[in-house]
Design brief:
- With 328 residues, the protein is an alpha/beta fold.
- It has 3 domains: 49 residues, Single alpha-helices involved in coiled-coils or other helix-helix interfaces (Up-down Bundle); 215 residues, 3-Layer(aba) Sandwich (Rossmann fold); 48 residues, no CATH class.
- Helix content is 55%, strand content 11%.
- α1 packs across α3.
- 38% of the residues are buried.
- Bound molecules: guanosine-5'-diphosphate (GDP).
- Guanosine-5'-diphosphate binds next to α4.
- The site of guanosine-5'-diphosphate has 16 residues, from α4.
C-alpha cells in the first residue's frame, strides 16, 4: 500500500480496515530497511496534521508492580466510556535483543480484543533510542487513527523512563506498597519525572500503602518544593479495588486534574513543543554520530586515535578535535 493509501485508510472510519492500516503503518514506521525510510517519512508527514489530539499517558514501574493489570483495568474503564485507547511500549530489554520484559499481546487479554482498543508490543530491535523513536512515531499513527488516549508503558529502568516521560503529557509512576522503605525510584532520580505516583496492590497491605504514600509525598516535597508541590500520590488496587484505595475512576480523575492544572498554567502545549524540539535534536545527534562513524576519513583514523587515547598518549579532547576536523 502506498503511503497515501495507508494514510487514507488510517484516517478513515474506525473498523477492521482502519485497524489493519494502523498495524501496517506502524510496521512501516518501525522498519529498519533504508529503502522503507522515504515511504515512512512521507507517511509520517501525511499523518501529522491528524495527530496530536490524544491524551498521552506514560506509565512505568518495576516488573511485577502490576502494569499490565493496571492498563487492562484502565483501558476497559476508558473504552466503556467511549474512549478509544492505544497501548504502546518502550521495552529496554527488547532493544538488547534478549527476551522482552514486557511480554507481548497476550497480556491485557480482555482489552486486546476490544474493538476500541489497539495494543502494540514494543518494537524488537535497535538501541533504546531507536526503540523509543519508533514508539514516538507509532504514537502519532495511533492518534491519526482516532485513538484519544494513548498509554505508553515501560519498565523501571532509568533511561527508558526518561524517554517515556519525554513523549507523554502525564507520566505516572507505579510503586509497590513497600516502595517507601527503600525509595528506589528516588535514588534513581525517576521520582522527579513523575507527574502522578500510584501505589498499587494497596489491597495486600493497606497500612503499608498508607505509610508509603506519606513517605513518597514528603520525599517529593524534599525533591523540589515547586516542581512537585502538586504531585498527587494515590493508593490503588488494579486487581481488587476496595477500602481506602482509590479506584480506577479516582486515578482517571487525578489525571484530569493534572492535565487541567497544566493547561491553566500554559504548560500543556509548552511541554509538547519542548518534547518535539528535543526529539528533533535527539535525532540530529543520533544521525550525526552515525554519519561521523561512517565517514571514510574518520573511520580510517578512529581505531588508531582511540588506542592513543586509551593508552594515555593523547588527550581525549585533542583526539576529539582531530577526528572532528576530518569530518567534512
Ligand atoms: P507487570 O509486570 O508490571 O505488568 O505486572 P502484572 O500486571 O503482570 O502483575 C504482576 C502480578 O501482580 C500479577 O500476578 C497480578 O495479578 C498481580 N497484581 C497486579 N495488581 C495487583 C493488585 O492491585 N493487587 C494484588 N493483590 N495483586 C495485583
Amino acid at each position: 500500500m502506498s503511503p497515501a493509501a495507508l494514510q487514507a485508510a488510517l484516517c478513515g472510519p474506525p473498523g477492521p480496515a482502519q485497524r489493519r492500516a494502523l498495524a501496517k503503518a506502524i510496521t512501516l514506521l518501525e522498519s529498519t530497511r533504508a529503502d522503507h525510510r522515504a515511504a515512512a517519512d512521507e507517511l509520517l508527514n501525511a499523518l501529522l496534521p491528524h495527530a496530536g489530539r490524544s491524551l498521552r499517558v506514560g506509565l512505568s514501574g518495576v516488573p511485577g508492580v502490576g502494569k499490565s493489570t493496571f492498563i487492562e483495568a484502565l483501558g476497559l474503564f476508558l473504552v466503556e466510556r467511549g474512549h478509544r485507547v492505544a497501548v504502546l511500549a518502550v521495552d529496554p530489554s527488547s532493544s538488547l535483543g534478549g527476551g522482552s520484559i514486557l511480554g507481548d499481546k497476550t497480556r491485557m487479554e480482555r482489552l486486546s480484543v476490544h474493538e476500541r482498543a489497539f495494543i502494540r508490543p514494543s518494537p524488537s530491535s535497535g538501541t533504546l533510542g531507536g526503540v523509543a523513536e519508533k514508539t514516538r512515531e507509532a504514537l502519532l499513527a495511533c492518534e491519526a487513527a482516532g485513538h484519544d488516549v494513548v498509554i505508553v508503558e515501560t519498565v523501571g529502568v532509568g533511561q527508558s523512563e526518561t524517554a517515556v516521560a519525554g513523549m507523554t503529557d502525564c507520566f505516572v509512576l507505579l510503586q509497590l506498597p513497600n516502595a517507601g522503605d527503600d525509595l528506589q525510584a528516588i535514588k534513581k532520580g525517576v521520582m522527579e519525572l513523575a507527574d502522578l505516583v500510584v501505589i498499587n496492590k494497596a489491597d495486600l497491605d493497606e497500612d503499608a500503602a498508607t505509610r508509603a504514600r506519606a513517605q513518597i509525598t514528603s520525599a517529593l516535597r524534599y525533591l523540589g518544593p515547586h516542581a512537585h508541590a502538586g504531585t498527587e500520590v494515590l493508593q490503588l488496587s488494579a486487581l481488587h479495588p476496595k477500602g481506602r484505595a482509590a479506584g480506577i475512576d479516582g486515578f482517571w480523575a487525578a489525571v484530569q486534574r493534572f492535565v487541567q492544572r497544566q493547561r491553566e498554567a500554559g504548560r500543556f502545549d509548552e511541554r509538547r513543543t519542548r518534547q518535539n524540539e528535543s526529539w528533533m535534536w535527539e535525532r540530529i545527534e543520533a544521525g550525526l554520530r552515525q554519519r561521523f562513524r561512517a565517514h571514510p576519513a574518520v573511520a580510517a583514523a578512529l581505531a588508531a586515535t582511540t588506542d592513543e587515547v586509551r593508552a594515555g598518549r593523547l588527550a581525549a579532547s585533542v583526539a576529539a578535535r582531530r577526528l572532528l576536523d576530518l569530518f567534512h
